[in-house]
Amino acid sequence: MAIRTGQDYINGLKTRQPEVWLEGRRITDLVNEPNFKQPIQEIAKLYDMQHDPNYKDKITGICEDTGERVSNAFIVPKSYEDLMKRRALYETWAEATFGLMGRSPDFLNVTVTSMASNAKFFERYNQSWAENIVNYYKHVRDNDLFLTHALINPQNDRSKAAHEQKDKFTHLGAVEETSEGIIVRGAKMLATFAPIADEVIIYPFPGFKPGDERYTLSFAVPIDTPGLRIVCREPAQNGKRPVFDHPLASRFEEMDAVLIFNDVLVPWNRVFVHNNLEAGNTVYAQTGLSQNTHQNGVRGLTKLRFAQQVASRVADSIGVDGFLNVQTQLGELVQSVETIRALLRTAENEYSINENGEAVPSFTSLETIRGILPKAYPRAIEIIQTIGAGGLLLSPTGCDLEHPELSGDIAKYYGGREGVEAYDRVRLFKLAWDLSGEAFGQRLVQYERYYSGDPVRKLGMFYSNYKKKASFTMVDRALEQNETEKNVSMN
Ligand SMILES: Cc1cc2nc3c(=O)[nH]c(=O)nc-3n(C[C@H](O)[C@H](O)[C@H](O)COP(=O)(O)OP(=O)(O)OC[C@H]3O[C@@H](n4cnc5c(N)ncnc54)[C@H](O)[C@@H]3O)c2cc1C
């Protein structure tokens, strides 16, 4: 099949019956569920872009293995040019969703590609794990699948290790091995897009301690595997709120979920890591990470640019962007965007070829983006809230605008500066409120803080890694020069 269309994706959803729970309801008709309908359409549009002559050659290419056309996410980059092809895909899809859908299919597709191209990591521990990850990559590539993933143990008692929790199987762990595979039980979070994905891949986040061996699991199963329960968070939109009133929330909601595994059988050929502390603690950093961090950076830049443009348009529409305090906030936002843009260019220009022949962007620059965005994006939202102020809350609804008794007042009292009609100002402010005030917008802030792990511990890890490679020779040189100067003055 190689590249799917949007309809292929939707048809796939129709063939499955995963156990999805939403607001106390078991969802049986996913594609017609009002909460999921529009997000499914948005993902379908991304798949359709793969067939659109305007984008096809930009975001897809020919697979060396099969001769079939596949998404650029599945082509292992060997050069700078290949990295740029990857970037074109990330950018094209991020632009189509304004960077608001962080877990579009490219994110995990590049992760799995990168895990497979780092098969040597798995081989170090178990030959069949290496074969499994390569075969899984081929399966995802050749069927152009959309995956969700869950790395994190549920948030119970973080002061205790997985094996010290109240129940042995609160955190997802292996119960027993059978001739067919491993039986797993317990929960994982936070699986974004789980209800409308094709499959789920589990891989562990570092932090396991001796005694945690059974929890060091990495595997993949179809989303409708028996025993797998998907419990969704409360939706930010109900699928019934008009697009006019909620131009972003009505389209781009990524549902998040907890996954509960009730004695799920994971076949042996889908096991990538099992019962190994060292592999469990290192698989995340040493396999898929470098490539999906690139996707994160490109997508994050798009989202920040969008917020910056919304802030500027809001300020302009009510004539406040001539005030110094507003200009400094808008200027700060432009500089944040330019910082991320520059870091991304540096990451790509300073790429290296790893031991597997894969081109990888500079990890230090990408992780610096990862460190800056959790501060820069919430600040962008704060700036929109500060500049839009009370007006953000007061937009009338589309129904008010259409009502003959109100339309005159709205035209008179809701217009902006000279040349900005009420209709246009209301539309803009609704978009700004979706992004900065609604539950939808608050989730987007939380996403930027936490989507790839706790930024506090990530920054700590970043510095530890940095220290391992850094030599601080300037300090040595300065100290040596001081010694020389001392000797000279003593003579
Ligand atoms: C919107 C959204 C979407 C997401 N999507 C996904 C997804 O698709 N797949 C996925 O796997 N994950 C996803 N994540 C989850 C993300 O990986 C986690 O939220 C993140 O790793 C942080 O873990 P936590 O939420 O359990 O916080 P915790 O680890 O419980 O941290 C809570 C607080 O305690 C502090 N803390 C906890 N433990 C320590 C410690 N040992 N040392 C120091 N401080 C500590 C943290 O700094 C933090 O302030 C998503 C998160 C969000 C918000």
From TrEMBL:
GO function terms (MF aspect): monooxygenase activity; oxidoreductase activity, acting on the CH-CH group of donors
Domain HpaB/PvcC/4-BUDH C-terminal, chain residue ranges per copy: 282-479
Coiled-coil segments on the chain, per record: none
Annotated Gene3D superfamilies: 4-hydroxybutyryl-coa dehydratase, domain 1, Butyryl-CoA Dehydrogenase, subunit A, domain 2, Butyryl-CoA Dehydrogenase, subunit A, domain 3
Keyword RNA-binding: no
Cited InterPro entries: Acyl-CoA_Oxase/DH_mid-dom_sf (IPR046373), AcylCo_DH-like_C (IPR036250), AcylCoA_DH/oxidase_NM_dom_sf (IPR009100), HpaB/PvcC/4-BUDH (IPR004925), HpaB/PvcC/4-BUDH_C (IPR024719), HpaB/PvcC/4-BUDH_N (IPR024674)
Signal peptide: none
Residues involved in FAD binding: H149, A150, L151, Q155, N156, D157, R158, T192, D454, P455, V456, R457
Organism superkingdom: Bacteria
UniProt keyword Nucleus present: no
Alphabetical keyword list: FAD, Flavoprotein, Monooxygenase, Oxidoreductase
Residue stretches making up the HpaB/PvcC/4-BUDH N-terminal domain: 5-273
PANTHER family: 4-HYDROXYPHENYLACETATE 3-MONOOXYGENASE-RELATED (PTHR36117)
Protein name from the UniProt record: Anthranilate 3-monooxygenase (FAD) / 4-hydroxyphenylacetate 3-monooxygenase
